[in-house]
Amino acid sequence: MPQEVRGVIAPGRDEPVRVETIVIPDPGPGEAVVKVQACGVCHTDLHYKQGGINDEFPFLLGHEAAGVVESVGEGVTDVAPGDFVVLNWRAVCGQCRACLRGRPWYCFATHNAVQRMSLVDGTELSAALGIGAFAEKTLVAAGQCTKVDASVAPAVAGLLGCGVMAGIGAAINTGNVGRGDSVAVIGCGGVGDAAIAGSRLAGAARIIAVDVDDRKLEKARAMGATHTVNSRSVDAVEAIRELTGGFGADVVIEAVGRPETYEQAFYARDLAGTVVLVGVPTPEMKLELPLLDVFGRGGALKSSWYGDCLPSRDFPMLIDLHLQGRLDLGAFVTETIALDEVEKAFERMHAGDVLRSVVVL
Ligand SMILES: NC(=O)c1ccc[n+]([C@@H]2O[C@H](COP(=O)([O-])OP(=O)(O)OC[C@H]3O[C@@H](n4cnc5c(N)ncnc54)[C@H](O)[C@@H]3O)[C@@H](O)[C@H]2O)c1
Ligand SMILES: [Zn+2]
Ligand SMILES: [Zn+2]
Q1: Which of 191, 264, 358 to mutate to test the pocket of ligand 1 (most atoms within 8 A of CB)?
Q2: 278 Cα nearest atom in ligand 1
Q3: pLDDT of 220-262, one tens digit each?
Q4: 139: β partners
Q5: pTM of this structure
């Protein structure tokens, strides 16, 4: 029997989000229904609401979640009802050219639920990143459920489902940050701070946090930044060079998603250094760089989708590090909120007041 639950939808471009009754179908083959316990508010949800990702309104927002599997469809063997899981948006197919080459984190055919969730009048919903977890329950592909240690609070574990994984992975997977490296992170929201925490885990010797908001810089220091730069008052490129012996950082991670901050990242790295773009740009943004500089500065210009993570490998590992006290995932949770407070949480995110607001159900 399909179930009716409450969920947060974005009805149209730039319209306020609202709580609606959502219809959740029974899980079909390869699908699972998950009782959501917590779901963080990520900037990507705001991008969806603003129409910055695509036009497939209405969206069921929320994608940074943890919960308990309620029921599974035919053929599901990896997870069972009662399992505590973090939801992921990279359920790898095992068969595409990336998977077959042994690089499943680039999988080109990741699984989502085949059936759609809908409004009571039958309007089909587009689930943000194939998850849609600002809801009491959600329907996903079973492969989107990654089982983790149930002793971690859902509000904390769920963060691995998107922003924190994206940031940590941008540093340790995409950027290959290693012992002794210098790293600069531009944009210190949840994603940027996770890149800082990841760089610290990887043994970076110098971690420079750049933001336009002093409150964010203070928090970044607590996450592991060794130096901070407010790029509203000083030139970020000059400041990063000064802090790295005049050369630039080995790895610069852009966690804003704008051409001007990408350009800063491009010029703030050392010769043959690495730029990692983890911030998500919008369709109209353009970048112009002298091609000679692209050539002459060498190195690697990379993008990081979801921190190049493999959920089955990385989520349990990061949960272990958290339980050992080596990675403070709890520090990312600024506040816990109710389902009907998501719109307010967007405003607070926009105002820079929070790292992560987490909806707890
Ligand atoms: N690549 C991925 O897989 C992935 C996953 C999740 C989120 N993201 C993206 O990462 C970005 C950050 O997400 P978030 O949740 O941390 O957002 P956030 O809004 O919490 O943080 C953004 C930070 O950037 C700072 N900032 C804004 N303009 C700046 C500027 N000009 N210079 C320096 N700092 C500036 C803000 O003060 C804020 O601290 C977003 O674009 C989001 O969509 C990417
Ligand atoms: Zn694949
Ligand atoms: Zn996200």
Answers
A1: 191
A2: 1
A3: 999 999 999 999 999 999 999 999 999 999 999 999 999 999 9
A4: 33
A5: 0.96
